[in-house]
Amino acid sequence: xxxxxxxxxxxxxxxxxxxxxxxxxxxxxxxxxxxxxxxxxxxxxxxxxxxxxxxxxxxxxxxxxxxxxxxxxxxxxxxxxxxxxxxxxxxxxxxxxxxxxxxxxxxxxxxxxxxxxxxxxxxxxxxxxxxxxxxxxxxxxxxxxxxxxxxxxxxxxxxxxxxxxxxxxxxxxxxxxxxxxxxxxxxxxxxxxxxxxxxxxxxxxxxxxxxxxxxxxxxxxxxxxxxxxxxxxxxxxxxxxxxxxxxxxxxxxxxxxxxxxxxxxxxxxxxxxxxxxxxxxxxxxxxxxxxxxxxxxxxxxxxxxxxxxxxxxxxxxxxxxxxxxxxxxxxxxxxxxxxxxxxxxxx
Length: 347
Ligand SMILES: CC(C)(COP(=O)(O)OP(=O)(O)OC[C@H]1O[C@@H](n2cnc3c(N)ncnc32)[C@H](O)[C@@H]1OP(=O)(O)O)[C@@H](O)C(=O)NCCC(=O)NCCS
Known about the structure:
Blueprint: E1 3-6, H1 12-23, H2 25-40, E2 52-57, E3 60-74, E4 77-89, H3 98-109, E5 112-116, H4 122-128, E6 139-143, H5 156-173, E7 182-186, H6 192-200, E8 206-208, H7 212-220, E9 228-234, E10 237-249, E11 252-262, H8 267-283, E12 288-292, H9 296-304, E13 308-309, E14 316-320, H10 328-331, E15 336-337
Helix pairs in contact: 1-2
The structure holds coenzyme A.
Coenzyme A is lined by residues 22, 87-89, 94-100, 118-122, 124-125, 128.
């Protein structure tokens, strides 16, 4: 009989073998590279232990569900939450209820069950479990060069025509604007970012607690991606940050604005951070900047700064268990702060 149990270090080989079978060997190698950081070194792990479940059958591992625990702030009141990641069941054992058992174990064990970028199989599974419907996280793009508006599915001559036609819009959107406050690159988040979080936490009806310990783990220490971080400073205080990286994609170079924080009332501060990222993206030769942002206020400022909303948002799943929330909590997500940096979407 298969049984669900917490992960133990001696399960590692079985988990890796299952990962290879379900996701392929390249994805398995990439996961092995991240695993220790992603699951063992998370500063929010309860009792310091990875919050990962496996399905055992004899000595074999036939299912797995990992999580990334976080402190989740609901308007400043904190509960424990965990992003669900790397759900997998051995191919010959799928569609027999094991995945649902794993998801239910996670849901029962956490104050908030959180998911982002769901797959074709996990999305109907969450629906079956009556997870609340929540809006997906909108994506935004800021074109910087005429190559920014290429569509991967279209042939190059058509793309050239689109580029030529949209060039005037790109030129207006990509205008260089001067910086109005101090932004500086940093290599680590110091304690002043704890103060920033304490000041702004209650602005967001839902957001992962972005304190220094979390930010250093998430954006400074990962072994698989290298981020740049810029801090917004005023009078020695940290008033915001932006986390970004540049990447080469098939149709051009892109700067990903992965995460950011500022007071939602500090329009100038956030605009200043955006301008810093613009300058960095230009210097790196990027054709565009891409970002995902749930918060309406931040998105409004981004639109004023030359960003356009994209067609494909990031699917989001949220179920609050630790405290009661009214049904309308899930309906209006305009004050939630969720970005590509949440969970393990940026790999
Ligand atoms: C996602 C996964 C772990 C689910 O495990 P499972 O044991 O097959 O799931 P269950 O048998 O408990 O299925 C429960 C429900 O999930 C949904 N579901 C599961 N697999 C599905 C699929 N391939 N397509 C559509 N819906 C699916 C269905 O609603 C299903 O209920 P039903 O069988 O009554 O229709 C498994 O399909 C898997 O390993 N998929 C490949 C890897 C993957 O995509 N992981 C998710 C990454 S976010």
